[in-house]
Amino acid sequence: MEDLQVLKFDKRMFCFGSLAASYRYVLDFHFAIEEVNNDPEILPNVTLGYLLYDSCSNENKAVKSVLQIVSGPLKTIPNYSCWGHGQLAGFIGDMFSVTTIPVAQILSIYGYSQISYGATDTVLSNRAVYPYLLRTSHNDNIYFSAVTKLLTFFSWSWVGILTSGDDSGHKESKMLSSILQHQGICVEFIVKVILINHFHVDNPSRYTINEKNKEIISKSTASVIIVCGTFSFYITRALEIPDAVLDHFQDQQKQPQKSEGDEGIHTLRSVPNVKILWVALLSEDSTNRHWDSYRYVGSFSPWAPPDEQLFINVTAITWKNDSKRVPRSQCSENCPPGKRKTKNDMLQICCYDCVQCSEGEISNITDNPSCIKCLAIEYANDKKDHCIIRQEEYLAYSDTLAIVLSCVSVLLTITSVLILIIFMFYRDTPIIKANNKNLSFILLVSLSLCFLCVFLFIGRPADTTCMFRQIVFGITFSISVSSVLAKTVMVCIAFNVSRPGSFWRKLIGVQLSNSIVLLASFVEVIISIAWLTLSPPYQDMGTQTYQKKIVIECNEGSTVAFYTVLGYLGFLAFVSFTVAYIARNLPDQFNEARYIVFSMLVFCSVWIAMVPTYLSTKGKNMVAVEIFSILTSSAGLLGCIFFPKCYIIMITPHMNRKSHISRKAIT
Predict the structure, then answer these.
(1) Is 80 exposed, middle or buried (0-12, 13-18, 19+ CB in 10 A)?
(2) At 22, which CATH number?
(3) Is residue 490 part of a domain?
(4) Is the CB of residue 185 less than 8 Å from the CB of residue 331?
(5) The pTM is what?
(6) Is beta strand 372-373 parallel, antiparallel or unpaired with respect to 133-135?
(7) Which of 101, 135, 169 finishes a domain?
(8) What angle do CA 383, 385, 386 make, to 5 degrees?
(9) Whole-angstrom Cα distance, residue 622 to residue 474?
(10) Which of 21, 50, 411, 527 sits a CA distance of 20 to 30 A from 287?
(11) pLDDT tens-digit readout, 17-66
């Protein structure tokens, strides 16, 4: 807020001439006295008289007039009355607070009653200081409330204030500025107008604003100026207003409308280049006033509920501007939906910049001081003015990728079942017996289960499926790999058994192979039980992966447990690969070790490549990578270990004979 500026007028001042408004008060007063005196039923045997003095809106003249009435017609002698007849009943007046206050201070000493019909200063409400003063008008707080609501109604948040240079103007401007700022309305400047006590109103254009203060107002960005304080009505008349400016009025021949009281906030001015707009407001109890020359555009009732106090008939207002719309009076442009207000270099809270809401936040109202964060299941649209429900993403059965993976899983499952049937049918042939048919059956069943566990990864994840998918996958795969390990160990033992007096002959048999499978799988079961007990997997909603999608996924619960399962499977595969690699040069009748080496190479290659790929993908693609790894590694075991045997059984049955195997061994 700038320092108070001063407008000085011509020092030659005279008492007001005949104003129609002031003369009306005299006629009203005279009519009321005559009505009382002529009606014997009102005050029987009592005749009212009166003395009428003009204070000329000057404190000194008002005090002199009061003492004149109290003392008598000759000299003003305090505490002495020269009146020889009649009895002084009380005082009526004054219209302005600046003259009412000193008069009330004197009359409180004498104990005379006083009724003011225009003073609005809030200090007069103090009954301890002014016990004999009554008022027929509201105090300033009512007018401040009305003006504040009016400014808010038209969204005027950037205003200037013109005020009189007396105590009343100082207090009113200070109180008004405080109330406006409390309501979020900023005051760009306060200009104090010092009026000489008496001046001619017949030629107001002779009183001008000095160039400095003209520049202050003309450079102001505020489109609304509030005039307050004593003589607010006359301040506007004292300013030079050219005809082009007066054309801004609805009717430039009519005087500007005043509100209920004659003091306080009387006018609102729309000031691009000192243009003026007067808004007429009449309160509920002022409808009997003879203001027919003014257009009624609204009302303010201080006793109504807060949201019903102000009524404005917008259709009754014709705005004298090019757009025919409500004039704009703001320090900054409105922040549209999608943006929020932020402080700029200016100190005023009404002056701000607009910034776009951050990602995931919206602003759905104008001039929002802060943005609202969307819910986790929502995202902000491009304009950042409303939230949109995110689409759920998961590997659904209807997805093309899921359909392809499901078909491959079913095909591989059928293949493994067919191979199992073939092996069961030809279980007594040398090729089946030579490669431990029981382990082959266990391996084929576990591979079938590995292919089928893929369906636990497809579809909308739930807590149940999240827990079972990794556990079933880990246990079935551990059985498969441990079966391969057992087959490899049995190949080595079988080779050593063929030597006379070998220690390994005591270990040969079904019990050893089954023990290896059970022991190796049991470790995986223990890991899975610990995982489910300590930190089980659960359904989770990934909100950080995509902006417009929410990924329904399984949270592993414990990353350590997840990679422990994979690590243990890798350990079994590595041991199987090592043992098979050592036994790769055994005689041909025990040539399964070579196939196991290739199957373990495929298995390890797939899962080693899976880890970085899995970590670099997002959403449903992560699930697809894991499914692909399961199918590929399982298919590698199935193809490398069983396809060569099926080829011999089905295509070259002559090789599936004991004599052929023995001949190859002798060779």
Answers:
(1) exposed
(2) 3.40.50.2300
(3) yes
(4) no
(5) 0.57
(6) unpaired
(7) 135
(8) 115
(9) 17
(10) 50
(11) 555 667 778 888 889 889 999 988 888 888 888 888 888 777 888 888 88
